[in-house]
Write a structure and sequence with these properties.
The protein has 144 residues and is an alpha+beta fold. It is built from 4 helices and 3 strands; from the N terminus they run αβαββαα. It has a 3-stranded antiparallel sheet, with helices on one face. The protein starts with a helix and ends in a 13-residue tail after the last helix.
């Protein structure tokens, strides 16, 4: 156990873990959300978290088959975790604007809705809602 504490922050085992449940506004705090609900995102994926963190310059590692222990749903959508190098070997933050894991989570939650994949999905959803109307027919009288 002593070897784990002495490992350098650049070791992949020392990267911080961010699960999508931490940023999900559909979750309660008991279910794993770690940021305020007004700043959280609707159903973020581990790939989206990886994209925004890599874009800002973090050293990012995506683990697709890992699951959040409190997540009861085993769907592929809820799988995955992102590991991020928060500190350098000397103990200073890799990026000065993100000194804590909470600052990274808040940044990811703020940036994910601005992703192109999110904005395109929102635009196309209006048409699919209108197609389902008018398909139900009333029951006629029974013939004797």
């Amino acid at each position: 156990m002593a070897a784990a504490a002495a490992a350098s922050p650049s070791d992949k085992d020392r990267f911080i873990c961010i699960y999508p449940a931490y940023l999900n506004n559909k979750k309660t705090i008991a279910e794993g959300r770690r940021i305020p609900i007004d700043k959280a995102v609707e159903n973020p994926t581990s790939t989206e978290i990886q994209d925004v963190c890599a874009a800002v310059g973090f050293n990012v590692l995506l683990e697709k088959n890992k699951m959040y222990p409190r997540e009861w749903n085993r769907d592929v959508q809820y799988r995955g975790r992102v590991r991020i190098q928060l500190k350098q070997d000397d103990g200073n933050p890799c990026l000065p604007q993100f000194p804590t894991r909470k600052s990274v989570m808040l940044y990811a939650a703020e940036t994910i809705p601005k992703l192109k994949t999110r904005t395109q999905k929102m635009g196309g959803s209006d048409q699919s809602l209108q197609q389902g109307e008018g398909g139900k027919k009333g029951k006629g009288k029974k013939k004797k």
